Amino acid sequence: MKYPTWANLNIKPIDFQEITYYSIPKQKKKLNSLNEVDPEILKTFEKLGISLEEQKKLSNVAIDAVFDSVSIGTTYKEKLAKSGVIFCSISEAIQFYPQLVKKFLGTVISPIDNFFGALNSAVFTDGSFCYIPKNVTCPLELSTYFRINDKDSGQFERTLIIAEKNSQVNYLEGCTAPKYSENQLHAAIVELIAFENANIKYSTVQNWYSGDEEGIGGIYNFVTKRGVCIGKKATISWTQVETGSAITWKYPSCTLIGKESSGEFYSIALTNNYQQADTGTKMIHLGEKTTSKIISKGISCGFSKNSYRGLVKIGSNAHGSRNFSQCDSFLLGSSSLACTYPYLDIWNSSSIVEHEAKISKVSEEQLFYLTQRGISIEQSISLLINGFCKDVVNMLPMEFATEADKLLSLKLEGTVG
Amino acid sequence: MNNILLTLKDLEASIENKIILNKLNLEVKENEIHVIMGPNGSGKSTLSKVLAGHPSYKINNGSIFFCNKNLLEMAPEERSHEGLFLAFQYPIEIPGVTNYDFLRIAYNEKRKYLKESELDPLAFMKLTEVLLKKLKIKNEFLNRNLNEGFSGGEKKRNEILQMLLLDPKLIILDEIDSGLDVDAIKIICEEINKNIAQNSSLIVITHYPRILNYLKPTHVHIMIEGKIIKTGNMELVEILEKDGYQGIF
């Protein structure tokens, strides 16, 4: 396999021999519950605002935390088990539910799908696994927090979510990493499978370390995410808020096989300093009357580069299908770059595809109006950006939406000179 | 004797090397209503923007003092906190930002500046509901995006709501009558008279004398080529209406 070079990205060569492919937090024995997790690790998570203990008590969210290469604890397991939902690390799933893992793992993204997917398939050690049985609406929101802690470590986790007929699940994913001056690779795979009338909603708030102001260090976030709507009227919805990483390179996609199935992609990508992003989605319509919706908001500040790349493919049998895409870009300052690469590949004449795109800048008049009312320039800009992103932020679950708003404002700090 | 609120002395301001305000002098005291009239391009709107601190204009000469403080050393938001309010001729639309969020942030920023504690969302809601009732505006007005898709009248009423909330010392009305029909002008002016004019001074910039049927000015200034060439009272407006700007010279 060849290293792919088609993206609108400048990537320093990666020495694949130098990466630590397995790193494990120091611990002596296998953990039975969260109480046995090393308090140091819990403290790290708490500092990040991710308190497993707190979340367990206060909110209706079940959490799996993946630290470097291993899962360190899953909350709320018993409550979930009562409704038949399986939520655990993928290493546990391999031990306890081998028949499910064997049946589905790698069916959405084959090991030879792409370069970084192949790397993940070869070296992955852990990740999250989730199975929602027939007719079950998952009683909790499920959530995984990923953390790369080790300096030389890469992270190659895998997530597999299966939603059986008439089931429903909301899944949230958060990512952080500490500051190191070396670039680190995160090459994950996420596979979603939705059967008839099932509904999977997958939300990401990605805040991997993005490198410093000069662009030194930061995570390479090269992730393959794909969902397949196998059954009739199945729905898969991706929502992502991408604020971190030195380079973000990913296209959460949907393959729509079932009749009247639908895919959605809502994205905010904010790049600052020397960050780069080439992100978007693929909507592959194969079944009849399938629908998809894409809303992408890109914000570029500093010297960053922000590209939307999206494919809408409507196959010859996908009669009466429909797609709507809206790609908005927002430029801050005069040294940043925004690009849009929409690919439309339509093979029948009974389908409708719409594409809207818009590029805006902060207007001086808007800033003047807001500052005249006593709002500082920094706050005005963050208000304008939050307004620009609102359609997408509204798609996130409540607590993530607040987090996303804060994160966006935080990332904009110092963008006004 | 009323205190002096605003003093402009020999003010010269330019945009892209073109001088717009030329040795302008003006003094406004508390509880006064000043009207500035003048033909197109005389610099009336520039004056309002310069007072509010629009970044496009350069001040070459002269001084502006507001409540004995040097206004030219202040950023636009400080001028606002100090009590200067510009009602825009065309209020700007801000997509995705609700009127409520905007008003609350603006209000709390002023309180912070004055070293008062910020109002929490519930307390702020109560406060705005009282003001909305005063202006006979429905509560749903707050949930709409700031000025987005507002009619001309709604935009102007929103400006008045902001005035009530921020309680300024000096209000500049920049052609508040533009884009409004006769009835709407009357309503807006009544609201200004009833709710605002007692506590604030006004600078009214206008093309058309009809707004002066409702706002009773204490001073009338005629501005031509960036300079106030004549100051008087309502009689000046009558001359203007009869003979146009020619009648002034």
Description of the molecule:
The complex is a heterodimer of chains A (417) and B (249). Chain A is α/β, with parallel strands linked by helices. Chain A has one domain. Chain A contains nine helices and 21 strands. In chain A, strands 3, 4, 6, 8, 9, 11, 13, 14, 16, 18 and 20 form an eleven-stranded mixed β-sheet that branches. In chain A, strands 2-1-5-7-10-12-15-17-19-21 form a ten-stranded mixed β-sheet, with helices on one face. In chain A, helix 4 crosses helix 5 and helix 8 runs antiparallel to helix 9. The longest helix of chain A is centred in the last third of the chain and has 17 residues. The N and C termini of chain A lie far apart (45 Å). About 2% of the residues of chain A have low confidence. Chain B has 249 residues and is α/β, with parallel strands linked by helices. Chain B folds into two domains: 168 residues, P-loop containing nucleotide triphosphate hydrolases (Rossmann fold, 3-Layer(aba) Sandwich), CATH 3.40.50; 55 residues, no CATH class. In chain B, strands 6-7-8-3-9-10 form a six-stranded mixed β-sheet, with helices on both faces. A four-stranded antiparallel β-sheet of chain B has the order 2-1-4-5, covered by helices on one side. The longest helix of chain B is centred in the middle third of the chain and has 15 residues. Chain B starts with a strand and ends in a 6-residue tail after the last helix. The relative contact order of chain B is 0.18. The chains are: A alpha/beta (417), B alpha/beta (249). The interface between A and B is medium-sized, with 23 and 31 residues.
